[in-house]
Amino acid sequence: MSDYLLLLAGVASAAIGGEFFVRGAVGIASVLRIAPSIIGVTIAAFATSSPELSVAVNSGLAGKSQLSLGDALGSNIVNISLVLGITLLIAGIPVGSDVLKRDMPVAVLAPLLTGILLIDGIIDRLEGLFMFAIFVAWMATTVKQALKERAPSNSKVAVTKRFLPWVHVFAGLLLLVAAGRLIVLSTTGIAKDFGIDDFIIGATLVAFGTSVPELASTVLAKIKGHDEIGVGTVVGSNIFNSLFIVAVAAIIRPIRVPLTEVVPAILFGILSLLIALPRRGTGWVRRRQGVLLVLMYSIYVTTLFFFSR
């Protein structure tokens, strides 16, 4: 019973935290004079990936880095197939050219790199450092572009209005991180009662729990008309998960997982991203693509459990 109460508390925290976070993220973009999509793929993506980072550190120290890998890869699929899919069921979403050109290729290639490194069944510390270096290069490119495209300064903005968005974001993040943690604890406890494998728990229930911040912030961003923050958060979070989170886990403790167990998560992750690409010449991801993405997630979970037998 306590696990189910934790689950309900996590959902409530996600809803309230998402509201504060979206409000603050829009305000910060205005104060810093940068595009909201940049906030999405950097600050928002890093913040909403903090539950995955917590799982990576704790599972690595406990000698269960495979749980972190399952969480990272599974979260990527949840982010695109479920989070973006559910958001698209509300209405179509426009995707900026900067996200398509700078971020989408990295988001697609990162899980592919994970698969290549796992051909020998292990991602060691050196390979983890290599992944981390790629992440740093992408982040540097993103920050450089953000600084280059800053809007003219507006010195008339009151000090309180400059400070308040940071308060909203901080409060929202605390609630979102708490939500992810509560849902991870509750779903993991329920799953372990049924004797489910660590990687499978990580790739399904833990992945869903740690993706609650993305789900809450993306859906609320859509409802409030700030699509660029939602899309940026989802794509950026995938990059953080695939390069930064997996790298941290491997550096702490080499990740040993059979490639056959990871292949479904990698393939479904890449396929979901390809389905989510805007149709040529439109710049929009349509509602029918959202239906396909949600269906894709259902097939993924079924396939994962089939391969784990």
Automatic annotation (TrEMBL):
PANTHER family: INNER MEMBRANE PROTEIN YRBG (PTHR10846:SF8), SODIUM/POTASSIUM/CALCIUM EXCHANGER (PTHR10846)
All copies of domain Sodium/calcium exchanger membrane region, residue ranges: 4-141, 166-305
Keywords associated with the record: Membrane, Transmembrane, Transmembrane helix
Annotated compartments: Membrane
Record's bilayer topology term: Multi-pass membrane protein
One Pfam family hit: Na_Ca_ex
Classification of source organism: Bacteria, Pseudomonadati, Chlorobiota, Chlorobiia, Chlorobiales
Organism: Chlorobaculum limnaeum
Gene Ontology CC entries for this record: plasma membrane
InterPro entries: K/Na/Ca-exchanger, NaCa_Exmemb, NCX_ion-bd_dom_sf
Membrane-spanning segments: 77-97, 104-123, 129-147, 167-187, 199-217, 229-252, 258-278, 290-308
Origin: domain of life: Bacteria
Protein name per Swiss-Prot or TrEMBL: Sodium:calcium antiporter
GO terms under biological process: intracellular calcium ion homeostasis
One term of GO molecular function: calcium channel activity
Stored Gene3D superfamilies: NCX, central ion-binding region (1.20.1420.30)
